[in-house]
Amino acid sequence: MKVYPSKSNLKRLLVNTIFVALFISCYYPKVSVTKAEREQIILPDKSKLLFINTTGQIDTVSIFVHKKRGFGSNFALWWNRKLDETDTVNSKRHFGKTFIASSKYSKNKTKESSVGLFLRVNYRKSTIDEGIILSIDEFKESYVLNNELADTLIFHNKNAFTLSCQNKCVQRLIYSRKKGIIHLEQSDGAIWKLH
User: Fold this and answer.
1) Which of 47, 58, 115, 128 is most exposed, with minimal Cβ within 10 Å?
2) Residues near 45 by beta carbon (within 8 Å), at least 6 away in sequence
3) In what order do the strands lie in the sheet with 142-145?
């Protein structure tokens, strides 16, 4: 005598099979990021940096992670592929980490002597990149972080000579691969250095 599965078991098996098939079809591999590449990301989360300007005024800049997740989501990659109507088999989810640098006034007596800083520092890597790419929103330059690159990287603001960058806008920024942001030059002539 043959035993046949019940209708409820068949339904459950069918639902589970569909769920597993959907889950597997929406999974995309991640771009590989080596330990050496991750070590290029030097901004520590929840840290405070002291900056001092040429007149001796001090300001605190807080650093925190804006996007903790390291890799793009499966859904975002799937959605972009559907919108672009492309289906490249070797697409991988990109790596990205964004830090926010924001000045605080806890060390200042007046807000007028502040750095007035708000920056998004981005580290990213996609399948076409040769390493971690460092970029800062509103700045022209981006750099591939590798051993051949100089220790000091200079960034220039895209909007340095526009109306939107008149008052205390950071025109030039120097980034050290060992310490992070170490030097800021503002549109009002103030120069702030890491203390």
Assistant:
1) 128
2) 63, 64, 65, 99
3) 142-145, 132-136, 118-125, 95-104, 58-67, 47-53, 191-194, 180-186, 170-176, 152-156
Of 133, 153, 129, 135, nearest to 144 by C-alpha is 133
DSSP, collapsed to helix, strand or coil, labels residue 99 as strand
13-64 residue pLDDT tens: 888 887 766 665 556 677 888 898 888 888 777 788 888 888 888 888 888 8
Structural domain range at position 102:
7-194
Question: What is the pTM assigned to this prediction?
Answer: 0.72
Number of structural domains found in the chain: 1
**Residue 1 domain-assigned (yes or no):** no
Give me 105's structure tokens. 């006034």
Q: Is residue 164 part of a domain?
A: yes
Residue 123 covered by a domain: yes
Q: Which residues of 95-122 are buried (b: 16+ CB within 10 A; e: fewer)?
A: bbbbbbbebeeebbeeeebbbbbebbbb
For residue 89 the two structure tokens come to 């088999």
pLDDT digits (tens, 9 = 90+) for 127-155: 778 889 999 988 999 999 988 889 999 99
Using CA atoms, how far apart are residues 72 and 171, in angstroms rounded to an integer? Answer: 31
From CA 126, how far away is CA 88, in angstroms rounded?
14
Q: Is residue 185 part of a domain?
A: yes
Residue pair 174/152 in contact by the 8 Å Cβ criterion: yes
